[in-house]
């Protein structure tokens, strides 16, 4: 992290008692809008992502579908998903979706991460992994409702889309946005992107896509990567995009509930032990009956002859 | 140390199991706590930088589990519950208030120690299984994410519970004078044995009267 960050709104494994650097927190929230109806599946965005971020994943194998690589990896931060489906009228539909980190307003990855500062959320909405702080535990994998982070076998660090934080910081759009030849990906302030989405949804509805809508799920506080979906009423058609993503209650229980309960448990146990000792005193043994061999007792490191002294 | 007043309570092999397990446990527990309570992050540095601690914790955890399983085999027959344990439970207040009067028919381990034994053994088993499941480097990829979440929660709950139990265990060692020394040297005094484990003393120690040999282990 060579660049100064003075606009951090959340930092993993950091308690809220001390404020984060926020001198520049007037920043505008940004968003990437992906219009799946305009995507042709050319994978230009995948290439642009690899090129800008200097990622060179291994060439994979064809697994019978167009998805290639077959999944996100530590070196592939975005993948176009190709799902076929037959609609009610028996007509074939090809549903494409550019998969990658959603840059959640309430990121489950950040909530789960145990390493201070390994995940940061900036005032502009970007959620970025700081790889040099990452310990490779993989908790972010369990925390994320979208199954996005991947842990590298080479260096045991977590990786995912950065929303081109480095480009955005200097006023550029993400590499995928710049490359997309059909204009399916747009970038701007979150408010602008919602306006643009509203226009697109109207157009799609006018063309008979009654289910069209914006995917900006409230369960995670909204996202800074949003979709215009032709079937916004059934997001899960698009390669298991969650219908109602939210941080799992198990993760909340672990991070929000168990932590204070555990702290109380420690305080109660330590205080209880100390109070017991103060009230009852040491539990010593009266060694008088056998009478003779006090000397050896001392040699053997027994403390019974200080009977009563430390109580 | 030819001393007719001392009796062997714990053999060398068992003391070695116990203290090597304790050494590993401390490192595992402190690094685990450093992830559970991020404000206590510094505890993790007992195992070096955080990345190294993350690598070592599971291996040391397996060492703790293995040593505890050895102890299980060695100790389990002393820790089966018997009818006289009820007497101890009935008099728990006097025990805690250190009012020793009547004999409580306590065997080699008292009922509280037996609960500790079974608590430790079941929690370490849960930690072992859940720990393997969440071990990113080797096994985590074999489990679906919702299962991993449950394993993480289980691992944290069991880790906390075990650490709290062990704090109680350490306190009892400090409170009952002579017991820590006994676990180090192996020997306790006859009076100690009679006071804290009367039935063990009467059944196992008193009948073997002429015993003061210095056989360790
Ligand atoms: C001695 C008993 C053990 C204790 C007290 C303990 C405690 C803990 C705690 C408190 C955490 C942090 C959980 C959180 O952040 O909520 C943790 C993490 C973890 N534990 Fe354990 N644990 C023990 C044994 C084991 C064993 C036997 C294994 C593996 C076989 C294991 C593997 C892990 C793994 C993989 C993690 C996640 C971090 C990492 O990748 O190292 N633990 N443990
Ligand atoms: S793998 Fe890295 S980023 Fe993910 S939770 Fe662990 S420390 Fe945080
Ligand atoms: S999609 Fe997953 S990895 Fe991305 S910000 Fe949300 S929780 Fe984190």
From TrEMBL, chain B:
InterPro entries: Cyt_b561_bac/Ni-Hgenase, Di-haem_cyt_TM, FDH_cytochrome_b556_subunit, Formate_DH_gsu. The keyword Heme applies. Keywords: Cell membrane, Electron transport, Heme, Iron, Membrane, Metal-binding, Transmembrane, Transmembrane helix, Transport. Its cofactor is heme. Gene3D superfamilies: Transmembrane di-heme cytochromes, Chain C (1.20.950.20). It comes from the Bacteria. It is a multi-pass membrane protein. Residues 13-185 form the Cytochrome b561 bacterial/Ni-hydrogenase domain. GO terms for biological process: anaerobic respiration; formate oxidation; respiratory electron transport chain. One of its GO terms (cellular component) is formate dehydrogenase complex. GO terms for molecular function: electron transfer activity; formate dehydrogenase (NAD+) activity; formate dehydrogenase (quinone) activity; metal ion binding. Belongs to the formate dehydrogenase gamma subunit family. NCBIfam families: formate-DH-gamm (TIGR01583). This is Formate dehydrogenase subunit gamma. It comes from Acetobacter lovaniensis.
